[in-house]
């Protein structure tokens, strides 16, 4: 499995699926979630309404509609409360369950944002470490996924991912 790190807008990624850092309702919000909903168009919200939400750590899949990606995998990351409320395991589950859905749908490429690091307050370096470790562990099992791209919102974010990937 190839792992890439880029600074870009996740809504412009030409991959089989982009991952949405969603809230439990799956009905849109701010940050990455809002940007994905705006770029995909109103059909995404219509489909999300049929899903009945999503618990923290789990994932759901929808079509991508107006996005270059064919699918959106919605996952709900944990809100950071200092690390003592199972946040690392829940964040790891977001990555694992997103990749499981991608593999079940025989997708070969997906792009992740930095899940839970916006309004949910997860420290970026700790989140990046969990993301990378989760993807590497998943790569050890049989999967259709050939490419995972971490889409960073700025160059400082990218530097953290690149440093951790090189370690």
Topology (elements, then pairings):
Layout: E1 2-7, E2 17-22, H1 31-40, H2 42-49, E3 59-63, E4 71-76, H3 87-104, E5 109-112, H4 124-139, E6 147-152, H5 155-166
Parallel strand pairs: 1-6, 2-4, 2-5, 5-6
Antiparallel strand pairs: 3-4
Report on this structure.
With 167 residues, the chain is of the alpha/beta class. The chain has one domain: Leucine Aminopeptidase, subunit E, domain 1 (3-Layer(aba) Sandwich). It has five helices and six strands. A six-stranded mixed beta sheet has the order 1-6-5-2-4-3, sandwiched between helices. β3 and β4 form a beta hairpin. It is globular.
> So what's the overall shape?
globular
Identify low-pLDDT runs.
none
Distance between the termini: 17 Å
Would you list the SSEs in sequence order as H and E?
Answer: EEHHEEHEHEH
* Helicity level: 25-40%
CATH topology: Leucine Aminopeptidase, subunit E, domain 1
Count of discrete alpha- or pi-helical segments spanning 4 or more residues: 5
CATH class: Alpha Beta
The tally of strands reads 6
SS content category: alpha/beta
Major sheet: arrangement of strands = 1-6-5-2-4-3
| Average residue pLDDT | 97
Q: CATH superfamily assignment?
A: Leucine Aminopeptidase, subunit E, domain 1
